[in-house]
C-alpha cells in the first residue's frame, strides 16, 4: 500500500506498526460516530426525543479532548506501544459496555468510558506518523483518509446493523474487532524501537517573540473553532440529511447518503497531503478555511441537492484542515516537544468540540438545523480570519532546521 513508501526502515516492523496506527485511526472515528446514528433507532425504541438522547454523548466527546492532555506525557514515560495497546483493549471493552447498558445512566457512563479510551489515539498516532514520514504531507494525508473513511462508514454501517440486528449490534461488532486487533498488535509489534528515528525535515520559524505569541494565539484559536465545526458537522450530519433533504427517506438510506458525503470529504485529504509537500502551508490553510465557511453557508441557506453539495464542500475543507494542522505541528515544532504539543493540540480542539452536542440540541430547538449550520458558518469564518493572520505572520519567515526531526 502507498503508505509503506513513507517509511525509511529496511524491514517490515515499521510497516506493521504503521498499518496498526492507520487502522486504529479509522476505528477511532468510526466508533465515536456510532451513537449519533444509532440514536435514531434508540429514540424510536424507547419513545424518547432525539434532542434528549443526543445529550448522552456529551461526556464522550468532552472526554475525547480532556483525556488527550496527559497522553503525550504518558507516551514519553511508558512508550507509544503500551499506549496503543491500552487503546485497542480499552476502546473495545467500552464498546461492549455500551452494548450491554440497560439504562440512561449506564449508557452515559459507558459513552464516557468510550471517550476516555478514544482520546489515546491522536497524540501518539500523529507523532508516530510524523516521526516516520519522508514526505510529511503524503503520510499525513494517507493516515487522515484512514481516519475519515472510518467516520464516513460509521453512519452507513451503523444504520445497516441497527436496522438488521438492533442498535446494540452496532457496538458489539467493532468492540470485538478492537479487542482482536489488540491481541494481534501485542503479538506483531513487540517494542518501541521501530517508531521512527529519522523522520521528515522540520522548519524553524524566524520571527520575533511577539510574532510567535500572535502566531500561537491565531493557531490555537483556529484549533478551538475547528474542533467545534468538525464535531457539529460530523455529529449532526445524519439528522441534517433526515430533515433537510426535502423528502422522507428510510434510516438506512440516510446513513449511506451521510457516508457518501463523508467519503467525498475524506478523499480530499490525499490531494491536500500532496499539496502540503509542494506549497506553503499557511496559503493552503487560507484556501481550506474559505472553502469551509462557504460550504457551510451554502448548506444553511439551501435544502435538497444544493444543501448536500454545501455539506460536501464543507466536509472536504474540514478534513483537509485536519491534515494541515498536523503538518504545521510536524513542520514547526521541535521533535523533543512534539508528543506533548500534539496532546495540547488535541486537548484544546476535542474538548471544545465536545460542546457541539449541547450546542446542536439548543440551536435545533430554537431555529432548526438552519440555525445550526449558520452558527457553524460563523465559526468557520473565525477560522478563516485566523488562517489569514497565520499566513501574514509566517509568510517568508521559515527556514529548514539544522537537524532532521527525530
UniProtKB/TrEMBL annotation:
This is Major facilitator superfamily MFS_1. It comes from the Bacteria. The chain crosses the membrane at residues 30-47, 53-75, 82-100, 106-124, 145-165, 171-191, 212-237, 249-269, 281-301, 307-325, 346-366, 372-394. It holds the Pfam family MFS_1. InterPro entries: MFS (IPR011701), MFS_dom (IPR020846), MFS_trans_sf (IPR036259), MFS_Transporters (IPR050171), Sugar_transporter_CS (IPR005829). Keywords: Cell membrane, Membrane, Transmembrane, Transmembrane helix, Transport. Residues 17-398 form the Major facilitator superfamily (MFS) profile domain.
Amino acid at each position: 500500500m502507498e503508505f509503506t513508501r513513507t517509511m525509511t526502515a529496511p524491514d517490515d516492523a515499521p510497516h506493521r506498526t504503521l498499518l496498526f496506527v492507520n487502522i486504529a485511526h479509522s476505528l477511532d472515528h468510526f466508533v465515536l460516530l456510532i451513537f449519533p446514528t444509532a440514536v435514531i433507532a434508540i429514540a424510536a425504541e424507547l419513545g424518547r426525543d432525539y434532542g434528549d438522547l443526543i445529550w448522552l454523548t456529551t461526556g464522550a466527546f468532552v472526554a475525547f479532548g480532556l483525556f488527550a492532555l496527559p497522553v503525550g506525557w504518558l507516551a514519553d514515560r511508558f512508550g507509544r506501544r503500551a499506549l496503543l495497546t491500552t487503546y485497542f483493549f480499552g476502546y473495545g471493552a467500552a464498546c461492549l459496555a455500551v452494548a450491554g447498558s440497560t439504562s440512561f445512566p449506564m449508557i452515559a457512563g459507558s459513552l464516557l468510558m468510550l471517550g476516555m479510551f478514544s482520546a489515546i489515539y491522536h497524540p501518539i498516532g500523529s507523532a508516530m506518523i510524523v516521526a516516520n514520514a519522508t514526505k510529511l504531507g503524503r503520510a499525513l494525508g494517507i493516515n487522515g483518509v484512514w481516519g475519515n473513511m472510518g467516520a464516513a462508514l460509521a453512519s452507513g454501517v451503523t444504520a445497516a446493523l441497527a436496522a438488521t440486528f438492533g442498535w446494540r449490534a452496532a457496538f458489539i461488532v467493532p468492540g470485538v474487532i478492537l479487542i482482536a486487533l489488540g491481541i494481534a498488535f501485542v503479538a506483531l509489534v513487540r517494542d518501541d524501537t521501530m517508531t521512527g528515528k529519522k523522520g521528515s525535515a522540520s522548519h524553524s520559524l524566524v520571527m520575533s517573540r511577539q510574532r510567535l505569541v500572535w502566531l500561537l494565539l491565531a493557531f490555537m484559536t483556529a484549533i478551538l473553532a475547528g474542533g467545534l465545526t468538525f464535531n457539529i458537522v460530523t455529529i449532526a450530519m445524519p439528522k441534517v440529511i433526515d430533515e433537510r433533504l426535502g423528502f422522507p427517506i428510510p434510516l438506512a438510506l440516510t446513513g449511506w447518503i451521510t457516508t457518501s458525503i463523508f467519503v467525498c470529504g475524506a478523499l480530499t485529504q490525499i490531494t491536500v497531503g500532496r499539496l502540503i509537500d509542494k506549497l506553503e502551508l499557511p496559503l493552503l490553510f487560507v484556501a481550506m478555511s474559505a472553502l469551509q465557511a462557504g460550504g457551510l453557508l451554502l448548506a444553511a441557506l439551501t435544502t435538497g441537492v444544493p444543501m448536500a453539495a454545501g455539506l460536501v464542500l464543507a466536509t472536504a475543507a474540514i478534513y483537509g484542515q485536519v491534515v494541515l494542522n498536523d503538518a504545521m505541528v510536524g513542520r514547526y515544532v521541535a521533535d523533543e516537544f512534539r508528543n506533548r504539543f500534539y496532546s495540547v493540540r488535541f486537548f484544546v480542539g476535542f474538548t471544545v468540540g465536545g460542546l457541539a452536542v449541547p450546542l446542536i440540541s439548543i440551536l435545533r430547538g430554537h431555529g432548526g438545523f438552519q440555525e445550526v449550520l449558520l452558527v457553524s458558518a460563523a465559526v468557520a469564518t473565525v477560522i478563516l480570519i485566523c488562517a489569514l493572520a497565520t499566513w501574514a505572520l509566517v509568510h517568508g519567515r521559515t527556514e529548514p532546521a539544522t537537524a532532521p526531526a527525530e
